[in-house]
Structure formats: C-alpha cells, structure tokens
What we know:
- With 72 residues, the protein is mostly helical.
- The chain has 3 helices and 2 strands.
- It has a two-stranded antiparallel sheet.
- The longest helix is centred in the C-terminal third of the chain and has 24 residues, at 47-70.
- The protein is elongated, with a radius of gyration of 16 Å.
Amino acid sequence: MDSEVPLSASIKIIEGIHERFSYLLKNLTEEQLNKIFSHPVTGKQTIPTTIGFCAWHIRHHLAHIKIALENK
C-alpha cells in the first residue's frame, strides 16, 4: 500500500520538483518572464502571478500539515 511507503520518499519527490522549478524560474529571461499564457481553468496568466499563487499554495499545504501535527 502507498501508505506504507516511508514519508521520506514523498519528501524527496517534493524536494526534487521544487529544485527543478527553482532552477527553471531563476533561468528565465526577462522576455520569458513577461510572457502571458492561457491556463485551462483560470484563463490568461502571467508568470509572476503564477509564481505568487504557487508560493501561496505551498504555504497553504504547510499550514494544513502544521495543524494536523498540532492535533495529533
């Protein structure tokens, strides 16, 4: 079962995704950073807006984890 896999395996996946995402963002040119793209749900987006949402989303999940740990 998936629940039997050590938590460290999931943490490694998250760390790898964040490392790749950070590398990608740090290496965008000014032109690339200013591009607008179409998201299938939210419509037209800018890269900076998307970065802000992703940062909020990560903090949101972290808050849920902290609440769960406090209520153990």
